[in-house]
Amino acid sequence: MRQPIDIDHIRHLYSTYAHDLDRVRERQRALLAPPASMKAQLDDIEAEITYLLLREARPETVVEIGTFHGWSTTWILRALRDNGTGHLYSYDTVDHVAREVPGELSEGRWTFTQGDARENLEKIPDTADFLFIDAAHSASFARWYIRDLFPRMRPGIPVCVHDVFHGRRPLPFTEGAVVLRWLAERENPWFTASPARAPKMYDRLTHIKQSLTLDHPLRNSRDNPMIFFTLR
Predict the structure, then answer these.
(1) Of 44, 45, 114, 134, whose CA is between 20 and 30 Å from 11?
(2) Which domains does the chain have, with CATH numbers?
(3) Alpha-carbon distances, residue 5 vs 35, 103, 157, 207, 211 (angstroms)
(4) What's the pLDDT tens digit per position in 171-207?
(5) 137 touches 175 (CB < 8 A)
(6) Strands 158-161 vs 110-114: parallel, antiparallel or unpaired
C-alpha cells in the first residue's frame, strides 16, 4: 500500500532528495531568467512536492491536463529524467508549451496533444501512474474528470489538482468545491501546503526547506493552492 501523502512523508522526501532537488531548482530558475518567456504557474512548495512525489512513485506513465507555458511540464519531466524512466502525456488547448520546453528534457519522454482533454479522452492513457490537473477551474470541468477520467485511472495513483485553496475555502461552484466534496464523500484524505488553508503546514515545510538550504525562492508567490491525494 502506498504511503499516505502527509507532512511526515513529505518531510522524508525532502530529506531523501535534497541534493537532486537543489540541482533541479537551479535549472528551473534558469528557465525564468531573461530573456526567457516562461510564465510560472506553480509556486515553489507545490512544484517541489510534485517533483518529490514523482521521484518516489517512479511512474511509467504520467498524465498532465493543462500545461500553459510548461512550468509544471518541466518539473515533471525533470523528475522523469532523474528517475531514468517514465513518459509524460500532456494536454492543453494552447500550444505555448511546445515552444518553451527544452528539447533535452522532452526528447523521448514527452507527448503533447493540443486540444480540450474532454474531447480527447480516448487519447489519455488509462495506464497512468500519476495524474496532474491544472486546466479549467470550473465546477463542470471537475465533474467531467470525476465522472469520466478518474474511473479510467488505476486506484492508488497520486493526483495533484491545482488552484483549490487561494483562500481558506474554495469559492462555491468552482472546481475546488466539487473535488473536495467528492473526496469528503469517499473519506479520501488530501494534503495541501496552502498558507491560506493550512498555515501551520506551510510553516513546517518552510522550516524544513530552511534546514536543507532550499529556501531561496524561485517565485515570490506563496499561495501554493494545490491539493495532493491518492486516488481510491
Answers:
(1) 134
(2) 7-36+43-230 (3.40.50.150)
(3) 37, 32, 11, 18, 21
(4) 999 999 999 999 999 999 999 999 999 999 999 999 9
(5) yes
(6) unpaired
